């Protein structure tokens, strides 16, 4: 299929609760960047995190192969550093080819089990 | 009414939990593509699914009549193959006439009853 | 303030559960069209509902005064007819001046208490 | 990083429940404006609130430093006046430089624990 989407996406909301169900990956509190690359060329994604009280951290880099989707958990980012829990952050994703990005959180704190999801803001 | 919307829509998020309430269609875990065709001509919709570790599957085809809405459950797609449960996927919907698409999930796993919904990304 | 937004908005998702908490307006199952008119002129809003198996119904008409917001419950629409419960529908809102529209559902069925919200699709 | 986004954002939905968990800031009912300033210049944000039955209130002003995010709770706004609870409102955010805005509510009323979030409408 032809490439679809934009090359820069922004998610102003970001927060991974440290609490919630443990030991069941599907249900632990997490945030996910859902990335779709419909085109014939691999997408090299560069992720930068922004915080309230210190400078940006990154880039984190991943590759989404041609005609594949990747649902990347922010919880799994490790290099250059893990995403701190219970901390406000925001995210910019940049790609060398057009992609589409959607952001989802599952919050499994016992008092607040909930899902949220929204298409990211397509900047470019 | 005149046609409204776009002819290609993208939903990067996709995941149907296998768990949840059984035997009550309204409350079983499901994902829905809500499609609105405001125009005077039937909309022929072609749906392609993308996965993390294999090539695209499709097209699935449906027709949304003129001046009608269809809330199509991904759970009900059968041809060319059912949508696998507990599996990350993404969706592209293409139409011969402009339509509007919104995506909703109801997750009725006992630990995580929740709703999410967002307008799909309008690519074209 | 100057007028802000668009004059046609589309919400492809629509569903009012008949079940849920009764007797507490804040918590009964409902859907809301949140309309903001930032401009100096009253906004005359015309609402048309679309269904899966019959023709469009409307217009429902409301006025959002200059520099006011109206959070209009679909549950409260009466003329030309109430919105059927437990029924898939979709909505087009048209305004004589630019407005911004967001759509929210509160689902208070005992098994599925949840909120969803998304900005509507701005068509014109 | 270069500036990203728009200079006027609109959130037609707004409602802070007075009920819910007390004494735990993370879990009390709240609404948040998540603002990201990716650029090299501080963003001066001016916030105006709209209501159903009285004129606009504001401006509330905050500064989001260069290359920082601010997750600003509507609950914390005090000047020129606090945001009333259990009251429909809507919000316009204006910035001197491009920013991205996302809106989130956490509703912790015992009967309705839920999250909602959506990217705001980018007007300019």
From TrEMBL, chains A, B, C, D:
Record Pfam families: ASRT
Superkingdom: Bacteria
InterPro entries recorded: ASRT, TM1070-like_sf
Protein name per Swiss-Prot or TrEMBL: Sensory rhodopsin transducer
Organism from which the protein derives: Citreimonas salinaria
């Amino acid at each position: 299929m032809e490439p679809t989407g934009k090359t820069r996406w922004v998610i102003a909301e970001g927060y991974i609760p440290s609490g919630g169900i443990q030991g069941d990956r599907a249900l632990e509190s997490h945030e996910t960047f859902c990335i779709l690359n419909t085109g014939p060329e691999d997408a090299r994604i560069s992720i930068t995190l922004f915080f309230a009280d210190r400078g940006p951290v990154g880039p984190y880099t991943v590759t989404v192969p041609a005609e594949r989707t990747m649902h990347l958990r922010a919880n799994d980012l490790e290099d250059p550093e893990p995403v701190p829990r219970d901390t406000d952050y925001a995210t910019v994703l940049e790609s060398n080819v057009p992609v589409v990005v959607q952001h989802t959180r599952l919050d499994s704190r016992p008092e607040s089990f909930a899902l949220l999801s929204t298409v990211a803001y397509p900047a470019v």
